[in-house]
Specification:
Spore Coat Polysaccharide Biosynthesis Protein SpsA, Chain A, 12 helices, globular
């Protein structure tokens, strides 16, 4: 590996968190790995004080890292901000992250060690919500389920299909040749498709990155609509990758299965209520059955991660129900050819 690895952080309107993010990331990079020499911050035409916050941080920084700010005069989107950072990177390897995410102290060493040991083209990190609220603990269970169970299965049988925006470490020439798609609202998922098409190995790791997450149901719904909607659209638009990695097809099937399961459940419940001699008793039994079904998934999660918090665990079945409904809404929007947007992020620190 090169003796220089570059960190690239795209920023857009993150005045509330960018200084703290840089401070925590710098601490992790300086403490753990001598090969990391530069941090490239690309301000994507922010209209708040993000640029000033970054300039002040660089001005007051007294360490050995080379921290550079590259500004866009107008907002060009996260994908183009990443492309700009990669173009200016000096290293043969790049670590890409988000402006609202910071790394665990051991993370830089872990991702570089994993890259060296596995020979993979890309190493992805394990995302953990930075805040500690009931809603973020439920999101942590969702993340753990996806990253510790689903991602592990993908890695064993074929290849990881999705790359988490808060942390991935890859070879510069790979992302330079592929480039991030400025028309995609899930640019990290799209780059994963391109890597799978080129049969580039994506290796999972337990290297932790903390990311500020939605703290209200409204914010969570908006974020998941973009995630699930963007992923479904990209999976349907790139069917050639299904031959390389069947998990992309499975991803589509699961989304539509959620849609039909939700509609069938509503229809069946309505018919049962209509024809039942004791609707109240039937309703209670139906709710118990559904919660037992979701609780089975919760127990599977608990066995896999060997750690949980009681309040989040008890509410996880209801959280899964919420995600079922979001996927149902996503399928309807995709069928009707509706667009999914980034929206405004207003996630709060503790």
């Amino acid at each position: 590996m090169s003796d220089v690895s570059s960190i690239i952080i795209p920023v857009y309107n993150e005045e509330g968190v960018i200084a703290e993010t840089l401070k925590k990331n710098v601490r992790a990079f300086e403490r753990n790995y001598k090969d990391i020499k530069e941090i490239i911050v690309v301000d994507d035409g922010s209209i708040d004080n993000s640029k000033q916050e970054i300039e002040n941080f660089i001005k007051n920084y007294k360490g050995n890292l080379d921290i550079r700010l590259i500004p866009h005069t107008t907002n060009m989107g996260k994908a183009q901000a990443l492309n700009t950072g990669i173009m200016h990177a000096k290293g043969d390897y790049v670590l890409l992250s988000d402006s609202d995410s910071y790394m665990d102290g051991k993370t830089p060493r872990k991702v570089i060690r994993t890259m060296r040991k596995s020979g993979a083209s890309c190493v992805v990190g394990h995302v953990v919500p930075a805040q500690n609220t009931l809603l973020t603990r439920l999101q942590k269970m969702e993340y753990d389920f996806d990253q510790k169970i689903i991602r592990t299965v993908q890695s064993v049988y074929t290849n990881v299909i999705s790359i988490p925006g808060p942390l991935y470490f890859t070879k510069k020439n790979i992302v330079q040749n592929i480039k991030f798609d400025k028309y995609s609202i899930v640019e990290d998922f799209k780059i994963g498709i391109e890597m799978n098409m080129k049969e580039q190995r994506i290796e999972p790791t337990d290297a932790v990155v903390y990311s500020y997450s939605p703290t209200t149901i409204g914010q969570l719904r908006k974020q998941r609509l973009r995630w699930f909607g963007g992923i479904l659209k990209e999976s349907l638009s790139n069917t050639d990758v299904w031959k390389k990695n069947p998990f992309y097809m499975f991803n589509v099937v699961m989304c539509f299965a959620s849609f039909f399961f939700t509609l069938a459940t509503i229809a069946l419940f309505g018919l049962m209520i209509y024809f039942a001699t004791n609707p109240a008793n039937l309703m209670v039994n139906f709710v118990i059955f559904f919660l037992l079904f979701c609780s089975g998934i919760s127990i599977l999660y608990a066995i896999a991660v060997k750690k949980l918090e009681a309040d989040a665990f008890l509410l996880f079945p209801f959280y899964l129900t919420f995600l079922f409904l979001i996927r149902t809404e996503v399928v309807i929007k995709v069928v009707l050819n509706k667009d999914f947007k980034w929206g405004t992020r207003e996630f709060k620190r503790e």
